[in-house]
Design a protein that fits this description.
The protein is built from 25 helices and 22 strands. With 664 residues, it is an alpha/beta fold. The chain folds into three domains: 13-134, no CATH class; 171-285, Rossmann fold, CATH 3.40.50.720; 301-483 and 508-536 and 577-648, Rossmann fold (3-Layer(aba) Sandwich), CATH 3.40.50. 36% of the residues are buried.
């Protein structure tokens, strides 16, 4: 094995390069001695010549200088050459000191030889790198370089074909914002890659110490000269390559450079909502990055410690919120994580993602079943005895549930009831239900079912001897399966128009990671029976959001992409009610989490409501079920009642008063 390794190492050495370096060494020696008037005619001189040569080449061999691929030479490769020659020179100096009587040439002369030799070897390698990269360019000069390369290295570089030259001319000329390490790395990659689509032409900088200089042959200009530079260099796209900037600062840069009329991209991680950083890539700005404030990391050490080393069951774990809850919990080192979902695709996706991220460090189990299947659900509780249950399973699409009322009640209400009762039966420490702002004075069946679920959770919290129950409300989340933004993106990609149900409609938004963290935070602090509500920030007009998305996509609203009204959908109201209203909320130690004052019903009162619903489900009549829900959920109102008074609502007034409809 050792001999095989040595043979492989010897095969990796470029002996022709060693020969060239020997020639450079001899040339350096003769040059210095001619300048200094030294006559190399004695045996001692040639002995010292040989010793110095051996020291230099031994150091280069030890540090594997000749096993580098110099056509892709990097800073590390040249640094290794420098260190090798420095080490070889030091070794030669030590040998000289050991035999002072044999010294016939001053060390300063040989030091000059070593330095000139290093310069010559470095120049030769850089010339090789240049010819390899640019030797295919047209012109007599590059033709001569190609011939030199052929003669001395045996490497034949073909001149660029007409097609390649045309492709070079078609490259997109870009400016890079940020002449730092990230920007220079990007520029170098684009220049060195012949298949790159982009050609960096200029850097834009705000740092005065960099302005007016060059970086890898590219000028660095003041960002205030961006309009002039765009015209001068024919810039088509601008790439922001400053990873240290916050989301708000990147948004400001986007707005600043958008005025040039160029397309704006960012050299950053694949998406704004990934849990891990991964590898940077050149990508489009996410619409969500530009429209909304960056989510805040709200998980503290106490919360992480609460979930650590516990068996945690997440229902609906393959959904938008459920899968993010899985990601967050997995990072807290649980004893076991059980992902439960009726949809195998979403559950499989999060399973594979977590396996890749954590491998054997995470004890992960996936169960495919419906929360409505009481016997199957009980088998899961009996098998794993979860200590924490995060209940995110629910039907959430408002219009679909208006058309499938019986299914909405069966899944949302009785599925939640199954989870709650089994949590009590198997002495779960803590049960947390994910609710919605649509449960506040609901105008649709989905919202009404979630309100009834809240009532069930609170009723059981008052009587449970072992389990702590709580529910958490929040509004719309960005990037979820039912979010309006993906729909707008698809409509723009298809050439429009964008459809909004009503141009007056407003909504509250939060990112999926932020919402999930707040759910976990509120669940960890629950005492028993709390109905937590999350501060969703300011309301957003959907019409103005649509207009902004069109502009951010490079189009003009109503000119390139039209926006049309389609009419409110069944059960839809013009505004979701503000969750955070001081007169009915208690504050917590976390600024974004509040507790609603709400009287819990008794289990007897809840059971009467459930009996009525069971009877309605048995008849399978959606219209009947809708009427029954109005009776069992007193706050369930018809959308016409709410929408008729919408103009008077403080939420609508707040949205109208905002000059900038997008919270940033």
């Amino acid at each position: 094995m050792k001999n095989g390794t040595m043979r492989q190492s010897a095969q990796g050495i470029k002996w022709r390069l060693c020969l060239f370096d020997f020639v450079v060494y001899v040339g350096s020696l003769l040059t210095i001695f001619l300048i200094r008037g030294i006559y190399p005619g004695t045996a001692k001189f040639w002995i010292q010549f040989g010793i110095c040569l051996l020291c230099l080449f031994a150091a280069r061999l030890v540090l594997k200088v000749y096993q580098q691929i110099w056509r892709y030479g990097s800073m590390q490769a040249y640094a290794r050459l420098f260190v090798a020659d420095l080490s070889g020179g030091a070794l030669y100096y030590i040998i000289q000191r050991m035999f002072p009587d044999e010294i016939i040439i001053a060390f300063v002369d040989f030091l000059s030889v070593i330095c000139l030799n290093l310069v010559g070897c470095t120049f030769m390698r850089m010339a090789y790198l240049y010819i390899y990269r640019y030797g295919s360019n047209p012109g007599k000069f590059h033709a001569i370089l190609r011939r030199v390369m052929k003669i001395f290295t045996g490497t034949e570089i073909q001149p660029a074909t007409k097609e390649e030259l045309d492709a070079e001319k078609r490259k997109i000329k870009v400016a890079i914002v940020g002449a730092g390490r990230t920007g220079s790395t990007l520029a170098e990659e684009l220049i060195s890659n012949p298949n790159a689509t982009y050609l960096p032409c200029v850097f834009f900088e705000a740092n005065p110490s960099k302005i007016g200089r060059e970086l890898i042959g590219i000028p660095v200009l003041n960002e205030s000269r961006k309009e002039e530079a765009v015209v001068r260099f024919g810039i088509q796209e601008i790439i922001i390559a400053i990873p240290t900037k916050t989301a708000e600062e990147k948004k400001a840069l986007y707005d600043q450079y958008k005025s040039t009329g160029c397309k704006i991209k960012v050299y950053d991680y694949p998406t704004a909502y990934t849990t891990g950083e991964g590898k940077r890539t050149l990508r489009e700005f996410d619409i969500e990055e530009l429209l909304f404030r960056k989510e805040v990391d709200v998980i503290d050490d106490d919360t992480r410690e609460y979930y650590r080393n516990k068996v945690i069951l997440i229902t609906g774990g393959g959904g938008s919120i459920g899968s993010e809850l899985c990601r967050q919990v997995a990072s807290m080192k649980p004893k076991k994580l059980i992902v439960l979902d009726v949809c195998e695709n979403g559950a499989y996706d999060i399973q594979q993602e977590l396996k890749i991220a954590y491998g054997n460090k995470l004890d992960l189990q996936v169960e495919i079943l419906s929360v409505c299947d009481r016997p199957a659900l009980e088998r899961v509780f009996a098998a794993y005895h979860p200590q924490v249950v995060l209940h995110a399973a629910a039907h959430k699409h408002v219009p679909l549930m208006e058309h499938n009322c019986c299914e909405a009640v069966a899944n949302n209400v009785f599925g939640t009831l199954n989870c709650v009762e089994l949590s009590e039966q198997y002495r779960v420490d803590r049960f947390m239900m994910v609710s919605t702002d649509k449960a506040v004075n609901p105008t649709n069946v989905m919202g009404a079912t979630k309100r009834l679920c809240e009532m069930i959770v609170q009723a059981h919290s008052a009587t449970s001897a072992y389990s702590t129950f709580s529910a958490t409300r929040f509004g719309n989340v960005l990037g979820s399966a039912g979010s309006v933004i993906p729909l707008f993106k698809r409509q723009i990609a298809n050439g429009g128009p964008i459809t909004v149900t009503d141009k007056r409609i407003i909504r509250y938004f939060m990112t999926i990671p932020e919402a999930s963290q707040l759910v976990l935070q509120s669940g960890a602090m629950a005492q028993n029976g709390e109905l937590f509500v999350l501060d969703m920030g300011k309301p957003v007009k959907i019409l103005e959001m649509a207009e902004n998305i069109i502009r951010l996509s490079g189009y003009e609203p109503y000119v390139d992409i039209d926006i049309i009204e389609t009419g409110l959908r069944p059960g839809e109201k013009l505004y979701e009610e503000l969750l955070v209203k001081d007169e009915r909320l208690d504050k917590t130690k976390y600024s974004q989490i509040f507790v609603e004052r709400d009287r819990a019903l008794t289990l007897g009162e809840i059971e009467k409501k459930l009996e009525v619903l069971r009877a309605a489900i048995g008849k399978g009549d959606d219209d009947l079920m809708r009427e029954v829900m109005h009776r069992v959920v007193p706050t369930f109102k018809r959308p016409e009642e709410i929408n008729a008074e919408a103009a008077k609502a403080e939420e609508m007034k707040e949205a109208d008063q905002k000059k900038d409809p997008i919270p940033v």
